Amino acid sequence: MRPMAMEQFVLFIFMCCLSSRFVDAYDPVDPNGNITINWDFPSIEPNVYAVKVSIHNYQLYRHIERPGWRLSWVWAGHEFISTVIGAETTEQGNCTGRHGANGAPPHCCEKQPVMMDLLPGAPYNRQSANCCRGGVLSSVTQNNRTATSQFEMYIANFALDEHGDPKMPTTFSIGVPGYTCSNATNVPATRSKVDEQRHVQVLRTWQIICSYSQFRDAPSPSCCVSLTTFYNSTIVGCPRDSCGGANSPSAHQCLSGGEQSKVLAALPDADGAPPVPVIRCTEHMCPIRVHWHVKQSYRGYWRVKVAVTNYDVVSNYTDWNLVVQHPNLRSLTQLFSFNYQPLIQYGTINDTGMFWGIKNYNEMLLGDGNVQTEMILEKDPSDFTFSGGWAFPRRVYFNGHECVMPPPDQYPSLPNAAWDVRVSAVQRWLVAGSCLLSLSMLFLV
Ligand SMILES: *[C@@H]1O[C@H](CO)[C@@H](O)[C@H](O)[C@H]1NC(C)=O
Ligand SMILES: *[C@@H]1O[C@H](CO)[C@@H](O)[C@H](O)[C@H]1NC(C)=O
Ligand SMILES: *[C@@H]1O[C@H](CO)[C@@H](O)[C@H](O)[C@H]1NC(C)=O
Ligand SMILES: *[C@@H]1O[C@H](CO)[C@@H](O)[C@H](O)[C@H]1NC(C)=O
Ligand SMILES: *[C@@H]1O[C@H](CO)[C@@H](O)[C@H](O)[C@H]1NC(C)=O
Ligand SMILES: *[C@@H]1O[C@H](CO)[C@@H](O)[C@H](O)[C@H]1NC(C)=O
Ligand SMILES: *[C@@H]1O[C@H](CO)[C@@H](O)[C@H](O)[C@H]1NC(C)=O
């Protein structure tokens, strides 16, 4: 093959890899990721059952943002919730003829209750351990402690099966787009921690597993990637209308000047509902842009600058994270101002990792603001090259949503591209191999 043809071949392969998205719940970046819900029954008293419900996010990089989880299920019989602490249902329902503790009106008599977390600062007597974060769950990598939410409820009128055991509710949902939940199953009951020092025995545990699928979520993109390099002055911007054109139904409101009224209208209301996004008008119309700049080349290393810009003037992204796939990340030597953890490490594959902010420094990406880092990567003689678009990321996710990349044929090229195509055989095999893998996944499902 002539060098130019080779370059086009590599670009074609990139394009093919980039366009294959995760097809079903299986996420190669986080194959075991799930949200596990446990219903622990610490005691089984006649007629009124205490249940401690915990929701743990075991996903490495996906987190649940505001407006948070909304857990719902369908009772098997005529159960009702007499009281709950650490959460509340959205509706009370028709409680005619039913009485809770001490004859007080029950908390909820709906056949399908929808339980939501309390907001921070809820009255002390309504709180329980690990409650009251507005339904937000961190990813387990960023903060294992706040990856858990808990509430306790007392259930009356439990429908019983032929053995006298409570019947499991059905149709569980966590109320966040993209997630589906299993039916409840009995798992071996364990001890449950009530405070720092004490564990209590649990008599019974029901477990529900919820998993995410980008296919079911199918959100319109919310971020895009732009590229620059030190060796070519071309600025490759985000593709036009990456996140929906001005006329598409999913388009965000956009702000062209200092229209304060739009900003004020979007600010969070007293109920703490999250603000409506108001983004600055740009060609790409995305709330988030990730800029990848190949900054410098040294003898054995190269330097990349990454900047994440928030074009939404009102929304802050608390605990944001960025997942990047690039073959050189296995040789990440130095990183400034972000945290990093590799996500995929199977044998020789170690090309995907997660970046997030440093606590009390840049963990919050402010409205109309940006966060940035520089990193130094060691050149691996077997595959390093600035040609063929190799220096650019293969995939980028912001807060778990895949970002739109520019088309590979627009990537900035080396000035003497025709002479400098040094695409090693190893690299071709790697790229072609991962493409075949993606394709086979596409056909298997
Ligand atoms: C859910 O996640 C936990 C923790 O990573 C893991 O041990 C468990 O096998 C997962 N369950 C399923 C059904 O994926
Ligand atoms: C509430 O339930 C009672 C008895 O189950 C029924 O008689 C009554 O009509 C219901 N009220 C409403 C508003 O649905
Ligand atoms: C994360 O928290 C869960 C539940 O609180 C606990 O079982 C687990 O050991 C913790 N994992 C790490 C890595 O700290
Ligand atoms: C859950 O249980 C219901 C009824 O018991 C059944 O119809 C349904 O197929 C089950 N769903 C799953 C995902 O197993
Ligand atoms: C975003 O953060 C800034 C600074 O902490 C704060 O003043 C502002 O109210 C926050 N905006 C929203 C919508 O929460
Ligand atoms: C993966 O890459 C990171 C640096 O990005 C490195 O610290 C880690 O040791 C690598 N893991 C393996 C198994 O090579
Ligand atoms: C920079 O890259 C662009 C896009 O690949 C290419 O068209 C242009 O010729 C390059 N500029 C130089 C000076 O090589």
UniProtKB/TrEMBL annotation:
Keywords: Glycoprotein, Signal
Organism, scientific name: Triticum urartu
Name of the gene encoding the protein in the UniProt record: LOC125533793
Leader sequence residues: 1-25
Family under the similarity heading: Belongs to the COBRA family.
GO BP field: cellulose microfibril organization; plant-type cell wall cellulose biosynthetic process
InterPro entries attached to this UniProt entry: COB_C, COBRA_pln
Pfam families according to UniProt: COB_C, COBRA
Protein name: COBRA-like protein
